[in-house]
Amino acid sequence: MKLETFSFDIDGDGIAHAVFDVPGRSMNTLTAKAVADIISITKEVASNDKITGLVISSGKPSGFCAGADLGEMNERAGGGEKKKLSEAELKAQQFEQGFSLNRTLRELETCGKPVAVALTGLALGGGLEVALAGHYRVAANDNPRIQFGLPEAKIGLLPGAGGTQRLPRLVGVQEALPLILQGTSFNAEKALKMGVVNELAPASETVQKCKDWIKANPNAKAPWDEKGFKFPGGVVHRSPGAGQVATMSNAMLHAKTYGNYPAQKNILSCVYEGSQVPIDAALRIETRYFINTQQRPEAKAMIRSLFLSTQALSKGASRPAGFDKYELNKVAVIGAGLMGAGIAYEQARAGIETVLVDISVENAEKGKDYARRLVEKQVSRGKMSQDKGDALLARIHPTDNYDDFKGADLVVEAVFENPELKAKITKMAEEQLTDTAVMGSNTSTLPITGLAEASVRPENFIGIHFFSPVERMGLVEIIMGEKTSQETLAKSIDYVLAIRKTPIVVNDSRGFYTSRCFGTYTQEGMQMLAEGIKPAIIENVGRQSGMPMGPLEVSDSVG
Fold first, then answer.
1. What whole-number distance in Å separates Cα of residue 384 and Cα of residue 195?
2. Could you confirm whether 465 is annotated as catalytic?
3. Looking at domain 6-302, what is its CATH homologous superfamily?
4. What confidence tens digit (pLDDT) does each residue in 174-208 have?
5. Catalytic pick among 17, 135, 397, 465
C-alpha cells in the first residue's frame, strides 16, 4: 500500500497505526491525496484479517487536521469537464466526488474493527469529521491551544463529511445546531463535557490510550449503529426541546442574515431531514446539500475573500520583491488617543518596543492605560498569562519627548485629521529618524501625496490606515503616495504582517478604498431619507443587500 500523506504500520497486537503527516506543510489538510490515502487505509483495515483495530493520529505538532484544502476545493468547483457532460452526468459526477470521503468514513466506521483517534492539537472542519467517524477519541489535556469545531459556515460552506449528521447524533440537536450554524470552536474540556471526545490525557499518552481502548473493545460500534439508538434530547420533529431549538434557530437566522447566507439555511435542512432517517441516508442528504452550497456564488466569493485572498495577503502577496525583510526593533506611535493606544497595544503584543508619544506624559499614560485594560481582560479570561501581560505592558513607553524614539525603525502618526497638524508632526518626527526609517500616517481620508509634501524624505512617507477598535479589526490599508518608494511599501507590509494584520495596498485618492465604499453607502441612505423614503425601508434594504447594518444605523454610530 503506497501512501503519500500518511505513514502506516501494524504492531505486535495487530493494531494498525496511521499517522497523518502531509509533506511540506506545517498543518495537515484534507487534500485530494490525503483523501485517496484514507480510502486506501480503510480498504486495508477492512480486508486485512491480521489487523484488529486502527489508531489514527497526527505527525504535526500543530494539530490533527485543519479541514479541507480550500484551494483545491475551489479549483474543483470552478473547473472540470463541465462542457463535455450532460446536466445529469455532471450532477452524478459532482455527487460522486462530494460523497467519496463520506462513503469511505462510513465504511471505516462499519468495518467491524474498532477505530480510535488521538487528538493532540486542533481538529477543525473535515479534521473533526474524520475523528467523529472513529469509535473513540482521546484528546490532549496539556495543549492550551487545542481546538475543535466545524467552522465551514464562516466561509459559506457546510460540513460535508458527516459533521451535520454525526455531531447531532453524538451530542444532541440542541448542542450541535448552534455549533454548526455559527462555526464555533471549543476546547478539549468542553469537548469532553459534551461527549465529542471520550477521554483526556497528556499528548504523549494519547496513542497508547487509544490502543488500550481498542484492546478492551474489539467489537466497538458507533452509537447510531446500536439497536434502539435515539438522538440525545430527541429528534427535531418529535422532541419539543429539539424542535424549539430548530424553530428558534430558523427565525433568529433569518433575522440576522436576511436570507443572504444559503449555507446556514442548508445546514438547518441537513439536520432536520437527516434526523428523520438512518445515518446512511442522512449522509447522502448531507452531500446533496453540500454540493448545492459549494456551487453557490456566495460560497465561492466567501472562500476567495475570507480565506484564499486573506491567506495570500497574510503571506505578503502584495509585497514588492527584491527587498530584505525589514526588522522592527522600535516603533513610535504619535497620538495616544483611542486609535494610537490600540496601535501601541498591537505592536507591544507582537513583541515590538513601542514609544507612545502625546502632548503630555499624562495623556500618553492614558493611552497605556487602554492597553492595560485590554491586558487585564485577556488575563481574566484565561487567554493571556499575567507574566505575558506584564511583559507586553513593559514594552510600551509613554512620553511627551520626541527624543525618546530617536532611531526608530518606523513611526505611525495617529493624530486628528488636520493637514496642518499632521505636517507639523511629520517635521518633528523626521528629525529623530534615520534616512531608512518609514514615516507612516494613519489617515482615513487625507491624500498621502499631499501629506508627504511636509516630508523631507517623501520616498519614505506612506499611509498606514488602521480601523477602530484596532485590537479587533484585522484589516490595514497601505496607501502609496506619488513619491513613495517600493522599498518603503515593502517595509510597511512587513510592519503590518509583524503585528498580525492583513495589509491591502490601495491607490491614493480621497477616502482610499474602505472609506469611499463606506461613505457611498451612508450617503445614499441619507439621500433616500431626504427623498422621503421611510427609514425602516432604507434600513431593511441595506440589510437585505447583505450589509450587517443599515446605512442610517451606521451614520448614527459614527456620528
1. 27
2. yes
3. 2-enoyl-CoA Hydratase; Chain A, domain 1 (3.90.226.10)
4. 899 989 999 999 999 999 999 999 999 999 999 99
5. 465
